[in-house]
Amino acid sequence: MINFSDIKKSLLISVWFMFLTFPIMVIRVNPIDKIVEWRWLNMILVGAASFIASFAWKHYFDKKEKGKSVKTFLKSGHTVFINNIADKKRFRLSFAFILFASAIIFPFIFSAYQVNIITTALVYVVLGLGLNIVVGIAGLLDLGYVAFYAVGAYSYGLLNHHFGLGFWAVLPAGALIAALFGILLGFPVLRLRGDYLAIVTLGFGEIIRITLENWNEFSSGPSGIANIQRPSLFGLELSLQSAAVYIYFLMIALTLFTVFVVKRLQNSRIGRAWLALREDETACEAMGINKTKTKLSAFALGATWAGMMGVMFAAKTTFINPASFTFHESAMILSIVVLGGMGSVSGVTAAAFVLILLPEYLRAFSDFRMLFFGAILVIMMIFRPQGLVSGARRAYRFNKADDKI
Amino acid sequence: MDNLLSVNGLIMDFGGLRALEDLDLHVKKGEILALIGPNGAGKTTFFNCLTGIYRPAAGDICLTTPGGSMSIAGLPPHVITKKGIARTFQNIRLFPNMTVIENVMAGRHCRTNTGIAGAIFRGRAAVKEELEVVERSYEIIKKAGLARYVNELAKNLPYGEQRRLEIARALATEPLLLLLDEPAAGLNSRETKELDMLISEIRDLYKISILLIEHDMKLVMSISDRVAVMDYGKKIAEGRPDEISRNSTVIKAYLGEEFVA
Q1: Which chain A residues have a beta carbon less than 8 Å from that of B111?
Q2: Digit-coded pLDDT (tens) for A17-34
Q3: DSSP letters for A304-341
């Protein structure tokens, strides 16, 4: 149904967009002829496009709302509800299969450049999922997450440089060292929450980076560590091309592993304790949950993934220096978590792809790409402040017969 | 009957302000004791001392558990909960973005011990424990009359049901002593009556003692075995409900000198 108020709303939105894009789309200064061009046609196009888009958007959501109410109505009938779940499961399985199959054939169809981009995106998926444990589930705002990434990368760089340790030996070691650093950060911030916690973690991230930058004897300072070994395949040295593909598959495996672990943790005793900590610290303690242990385990487990990805990053680029671990990276990973939806695995995965791939593929628009990037973030926050996918909680089903007591 | 909880000479200071002054209180096994008093008398402060949120300046709190009696003054909150004291809060403090059953399951935390490894690998012990947690939690939810809300987010529940959920969550920790801080605040008379029934039912079913702070005198008089009255951080009276309602010190504290007959 099309009604008048919807049209009015969409009209308002389109006017608003015309106003917003006015400076970019309409005015153009021509410095050669020293005149200002007014491109009114662009404004009309923007208006029309945003009108149609907002109208379609609204229509789509109306439909979705209606769908929801039907579903909750169906829930009262026991058998129908189960069928519903089975349908969803079948859909999910086929979706996962298609995704997996396309992931497998991807490197054999596309160029090494594409494979590299996707590998990078996967690294950020895992980083996002790791930070999601700390920020999304346990509610501890961590602005220095990149520090653990750096710890992992330098663990591999240094251990490989000095002791010749291989990738497979350092992968778990890097994760462990990062986890220890997570606990190290955790102890002084046990009493802090919110903004104060954010400031301290921000400082922690900077401490790690600046130490690496200035402690020349240890980390060779800003010049970094070069010639780090790529991961070997059963002792085989691979060519540059096949190494990229190999790392791609490693990343796929690691991502699946991460998703598996995070999903399991989320719906466990530990996961519930993290959630409770996020929701209400006082009540959480009063329910017999050890706040110290819970916080430290969140920091440690979050850092573990960053450490692993650090090792991966060092192995992939074969060169690391402190410039790769600035606050910008932390902010990027945090945006992935916030954009994806706090505590939602699928949301964070999707957001990592959007945020990493978008600037890559928008290279064609070189000057505008950061503008697009920013606009997408702003629009997201206006229309879906809870993130792409809001963290749905698991539903428990019980026999209907028991209910009548 | 033996004392489950004995509090002797409890003192709590906030800067120069003495919130609790030499407070003595005993809770017997299986009784419902109501703690009443005008606003600012120190009732909630007393609860916070018992549950470890505040550390009392002096005095002793002694809890008798099946394993023997022990002093719990100054222990951290989660240890005290594990020893067997659970509470609800004056302003509801649920976990709003968790479902009803997850709220109660969080209460089971201190009675279970699956670690990180258990959660990831889901060994036989972990699965068994998780199933037990779900089952026990669901039972408690049914008792509290919240079965139809099981998978609802706690924040979406009506106010009265949120109060009941908070009690259910506290029960999940298997307490010996349940502290209820104004459980009837904001409830209408029908909901209060239901709450009255729920509280007595809990006491009979789980054989626990209940200490409650309440302003609703009808509820206090009908439910409690004994009533203790506080004013300005001191206990001014203690006794059976009918004794308390005639006590001149209590009337003076509530209504002023001129009402004492």
Answers
A1: 288
A2: 787 777 667 777 677 777
A3: HHHHHHHHHHHHHHS-B-GGGGSHHHHHHHHHHHHHH-
Q: In a 3-state reduction of DSSP, which class is residue B165? A: helix
User: What is the rounded CA–CA span in Å between residue B261 and residue B107?
Assistant: 48
Compute the Cα dihedral for A144, A146, A151, A152 and give only its sign. Answer: positive
pLDDT digits (tens, 9 = 90+) for A165-213: 889 999 999 999 999 999 999 999 888 888 899 999 999 999 999 999 9
Q: Which residues of A159-175 are buried (b: 16+ CB within 10 A; e: fewer)?
A: bbbeeebebeebbebbb
Nearest one of B144, B210, B148 to B176, comparing CA atoms: B210
Is A118 found in the same domain as A38?
no
pLDDT in tens, B103-118: 999 999 999 988 888 8
Q: Please judge whether B173 and A288 are an interchain contact, meaning their C-beta atoms are less than 8 angstroms apart.
A: yes
Q: How far apart are alpha carbons A133 and A263 in whole angstroms? A: 10
Q: How far apart are CA A297 and CA A291, in angstroms?
A: 10
In 3-state terms chain A splits into helix, strand, coil percentages (rounded to 5) of 80, 5, 20
Residue ranges, CATH 3.40.50.300, chain B = 1-84+175-261
Q: With beta carbons under 8 A apart, name residues in chain B contacting A176.
A: none
This model of the complex carries an ipTM of 0.91
Q: Residue B94 in contact with residue B166, Cβ under 8 Å?
A: yes
What secondary structure letter does DSSP report for B196?
Answer: H
Domain encompassing residue A228: 109-383
Comparing CB atoms, the residue among B106, B130, B147 nearest residue A276 is B106
